What we know:
Elements: H1 5-9, H2 29-39, H3 51-59, H4 62-93, H5 97-124, H6 128-135, H7 137-140, H8 142-154, H9 156-159, H10 172-206, H11 211-241, H12 248-273, H13 282-299, H14 318-329
Amino acid sequence: MTTTPETARGVKNLLDPGFELTLRPMRYPDFYERYRDAIKNTWTVEEVDLHSDVADLAKLTPGEQHLIGRLVAFFATGDSIVSNNLVLTLYKHINSPEARLYLSRQLFEEAVHVQFYLTLLDTYLPDPVDRAAAFAAVEEIPSIREKAQFCFRWMANFDGQGAEKIDQLETHEDRRNFLLNLICFAACIEGLFFYGAFAYVYWFRSRGLLHGLATGTNWVFRDETMHMSFAFDVVDTVRKEDPGLFDERLQQEVTDMLREAVEAELQFARDLCGDGLPGMNTESMRAYLECVADQRLARLGFPPVYGSQNPFSFMELQGVQELTNFFERRPSAYQVAVEGSVALDEEF
């Protein structure tokens, strides 16, 4: 038999232990194309103009100001949890140099998001005491602390929070725990917590307020949609290579995870909305979150559980609208040529 580079190296699955270094022959070219697409989407925080937001903040009611304060406090820490999991877990255990190229790019994008949220805090909360309280949100604000604790519970074996850290995926149970971490990361943090936060931003935008916040969020929205899509592609690849992992137990665990995520995000909504604001209240947010959770379950090949409809018309065309904004409104912002197209997740 003729020995090829592929047979000489041995065919490995995506979650096999080790640290594959060779890009040729390329085992997962789709991951490499995602990396190339991500490079085309470069933006910087300096492009976001927040000056008009300062005047808008003064127009808000006390309830709306409370909502914005809580929202930027969540933003200040949310992407830091994502970034830590990227470095400590995903990069380490997804054994594909093509995928690690994309994860390296994603880590850069998460750093830009953190910088954007830092700029938001500096602009929206000029008082140093208020800013310090926002940065301490995970410890000091119960509704944000509950979301952080949810993340740590479902990612515990890999982030060192309350459980022995797993260094290699040696067993079936190790790979199952890794999948739960990845699905929590994609479906619950990127795909539910941040999508809930985006809805508050676009509610303000629908009323002609906080355009700077909306502009930066547009670009974060696009990035996060691509991050989530990549993670689901990894799940699809694992499903093909190790279908035995996707049993009734995993389906039940993922369903329970999303139910728990919806409840954590609803607690946050109660904190933000209080007794309700015009066009935004806990019940409408519940329907929206349940609708999004069903979409995440469907993308994973699991049955939906809620059957709720999206009550927010301002979210329905967000993906299409942002594609137009990014590639047509600011073409002078690029240092690299933009070719082809980027397919965004149409699920809001």
